[in-house]
Amino acid sequence: ISYCGVALRYATDDFQLFTFTLGCFPYNAASHSAQHLREFVNKVLAEYKLVLGTTKFAVTDNEAKY
Fold this sequence. Notes:
alpha+beta; about 30% strand; about 70 residues
């Protein structure tokens, strides 16, 4: 089983950075493709009544590729 951590970051107009960790959730999608990750993140955000807007969005993966 894999896990995926989801965090939100927000910068104010005077460049104060705020980070909110929503959690670390089991990730059991068929692959780590962009489509599957986006669906997973959308599902997690929906649980918090949040949606992605037009702001920048990044996903990182530290899975070892052997």
